[in-house]
Amino acid sequence: MKLNHLHSTAFITLLIVVAGCSQTDHFSGIDPYEQPLKALEEGNERFVRGTRTYPHLDAARRHDTAIHGQHPYAAVVACSDSRVPVEELMGAGIGDIFVIRVAGNVCMTDETGSVDYAVAHLHVPLVVVLGHTECGAVTAAVNHSPEHGSITRLLAHIDEPIQKVRLEHPELEGGALLNASIEANVWRSIEDLIAHSNSIRGAICEQQTRIEGAIYNLDTGEVRWLGPHPMQEELVAASSEDGFE
Asked: What is the pLDDT of residues 110-136, one digit of tens each?
């Protein structure tokens, strides 16, 4: 019975994607991501003020999630940088957010698959792609730092949005260029998620999941919320069903 339900759900999702999806046709009347987003915003505000409440970190929470499984209210794709303590800066505890960390918060095959799992199986209503100031991976890509092995492939992926920034804003240099590139890299990760996952596109179409961009300030601790991708509808419409699935 469960297997049949999963197949039925996947088939319905695929039909929605192929149809191109109308944001109004599948609107439920309730925005399921508003409360999760508010929880993250308020958690970050407490973190910045130094009044963090440390929720869901006790033995009872550990036991409950071990027995009954995880039911996170958001997924966060963040950089692996040790100065970006995702749960802490969002005011979250055990079982609250599904975190994917990778240098430069890129969304290639493994990262997209992880978010896909969070959306399709854990039914998270909110996905956040979290960049941060002074990102080492983006800095290396901007400066064309000599690297070797797998790092070069990762930096090549980050270089694409940087080149777009250079083309559209040739006047930028130094810190201004880095900051613009960090934001462009966040948007690129969101574009990759939308382009390469039928489940994510289907959830967006049905307004079951929202993808938000954000930038964490290493110095102040504040998260600057960017909102959904400004070209989201066009990206969903342009993406074919030929993703990683």
From this structure: 999 999 999 999 999 999 999 999 999
Residue 232 lies in a domain: yes
pLDDT at 30: 54
Backbone φ, ψ for residue 215 (5° rounding) = -130, 125
Residues in the chain: 245
And the tokens for 8? 């039925």
Domain that residue 129 falls in: 2-238
Residue 63: which CATH number?
A: 3.40.1050.10
Residue 110 belongs to a domain: yes
**pTM (2 decimals)?**
0.85
Share above pLDDT 70 across residues of the chain, in percent, rounded to a whole number:
85
Half-sphere exposure of 142 (CA within 13 A, CB side): 23
Nearest alpha-carbon partner for 40 in 129, 164, 115: 129
Residue 211 has pLDDT above 80, yes or no: yes
- Give the chain's domain count: 1
Helix (H) or strand (E) holding 48: helix 34-49
